Amino acid sequence: MSGILKSIKQADQTLGNFLELEIENYGIFPEKDFEILVTFKDGKRILYKKKGNQLSSREMNSSQPVSENLRKAKENEFVIEGFVDENITDSCYNIYLADEHFLIQDEPVATVPVVNKRFTYVVNIDKMTAGRLRCIFPGGELCKNTISLYFVPGETVSLFVHNGFYNLRKSEEYDDKVNNAIDAIREETEWKTPHQPKIKGEAWKEVKHKQNYYNLLVKEVYFNDKETVLRIANKGYGEGLTISKEAYLMDEDGNKYRLLRAVKGNIGSNNEPEVRIFGGYFAFEPMPKDVKRLTLHDVGIEIKNIRKTKEGKVIY
After folding, report:
1. pLDDT 10s digits, 248-266
2. What does pTM read for this prediction?
3. Class of the 202-315 domain?
């Protein structure tokens, strides 16, 4: 992130006056190309693009209302106020809701139209859940990309949809409610959900490791002849969880074991709310079952000294 901010500061010295800077989990790393929207206190909105060593900027249409004329959510309502860029042809959005364990369902519960580059969705809920938005192009084609977020009673969020990315404006209370709800869910369920995959083999069911800057946790490690599976989570509540295809494991002797697949979750992009809460399962090349310690490496991330905390292994 520091590399991105440094590049933008070089292009626009007024960045110190920005009101909001949000990157919604596009698998962006400082050395990669990116598109990022900065909203300034005076209402000016600038889209910055980095391609190779070139950084460009373009002022966006500022006519869309940001804080005015928004529907205020009632106590048991969650409201999405959507704003679509002028050059986007989205005609409507399908809305999908999660079950009680935060697994978002495949069938939409509503379809909301885009009128004058705006759309509004209101749902009655009495506790936090999760949802997904998926746009429908003129002609009925579904967009391959989706937007997933937490639906919080009593809150209104503003969703700005751009070409290939989006920004979500929300209140501090929204974040506090999300954090408190996830904390309670994890404590009540002990980080478990009935949607967890059943992994065959031997398992370290109690794992500890050194702390890392990104708040990542390794909750479990599974061993079998075909792969080694790690359950990886982010203890930072509603924060994202992104594992890149370059990730690998390393044993005590320096041997590397590359990432093979996601058992539950996504590789290279941010994961769904359910995985953010309970963790995702990622399979690597098989390690020796008698390994004592291992390290997870990813782009800019290192989780060292992963090891079990109790004797004995669980067999599935």
Report:
1. 999 999 999 999 999 999 9
2. 0.75
3. mainly beta
